[in-house]
Specification:
There is one protein chain. This protein is an alpha+beta fold. The chain has four domains: 76 residues, lambda repressor-like DNA-binding domains (434 Repressor (Amino-terminal Domain), Orthogonal Bundle); 44 residues; 130 residues, Tick-borne Encephalitis virus Glycoprotein, domain 1, CATH 2.60.98.10; 92 residues, Lipoxygenase-1. It has seven helices and 19 strands. A six-stranded mixed β-sheet has the order 1-7-6-5-4-2, with no helix packed on it.
Length: 375
Amino acid sequence: MSTNKRVGQILREVREEKNLSVKDVSRDTNIAIKFVIALENEDYAQFPAETFTIGFLKNYSDYLKLDTAGMMNLYRGEQLVESQQPLEELTKPTVKMIALELKSNKLLPIGIILGVCLAVFLVIFFSDSGDSSSSTTDPSTTTETQETPNPVNPSAIPDISYIQQSVPENSSVPFTLTPEQGFKFSVNNQQCKIFIKGVRKVDGENFATIGFNIFPEKKVYTFDSKVGTESVLSYNNPELTSLRREIKIVTQAVTDNSAKIMVRLSGEAKPDSNNKPIGDVPIQVTLYFTRSSYVEFIIDGQTGERGLVSSGETKQLEARDRLEIKVGDGGAVEMIQNGKEKVRLGRPGRLAKKIFLKAPSPYDNTQFIIRELGE
């Protein structure tokens, strides 16, 4: 999506072009009026967390029949700019050197200062345009040969920022890995992290070394990839036997210190991935989605999944000691907990939260019961 307009402006203008009121949008999407207004005003502080902002923005964009992927890229770009994160690592020394020059010479004529500022803008603009064009490699051109993975790297997981991302079924999700930023995502209720460990050049071509970790393991699995290759992370690999689902990774772009990859869940779940924990009966919850809604699951203290779940999907959750469920639209979900009667999770259009805890039985200290907390 190539536009000089901001996210809120696009939403408001398209809504008005379709002769829709804020109330119409709220009624048709089950997004509260205050959140519709907050999206159009870009007042993201109104949302309980950025994950809800993203979920509602996707719903609103789909409803208006916009390019949802383009809107999400525009939103993320605005957030990066406003948080003063660099668009390209390459522009850092250029901007810094010019800023120092301006600071050291306060007597420069105003015309020269304005000219320098314009030059900085053009450098950033064209750097960004170049990166965008290099990041749009057609996945259909990827080779089918799989990279030969490196053995497990025992080094520690890097202490960087990890963005929580949802990877829906039958969808490829783009991740841009940098030295400062990785991603974490759920694979069949299993928390995984992926990050870049370095880039090396071979015969003029960049190869990214990518690290992958499965919680709660400490080891880091690494593999090399270049533009156009597909790598498969599989539980059939002796180094990834704990992985519950195959993951396909297509590398679309590699710069001197970053990589853009497409992540997709592949194939069936590992045959024994749904085995019950040893000992007591686990906390088991099945969720049936009658409408699309944004969700967040925390399983035994770890984020299991966070993202938009489509209408008609079913989620089966299992925890040993504690399960937290947060749903943006409580009326969109029906729940069965440990074989009990199916119930509606909450009120339509309202945030619903449930917490299930395993606790000792007050009548028999050798047994456990499952307690429910919620609103």
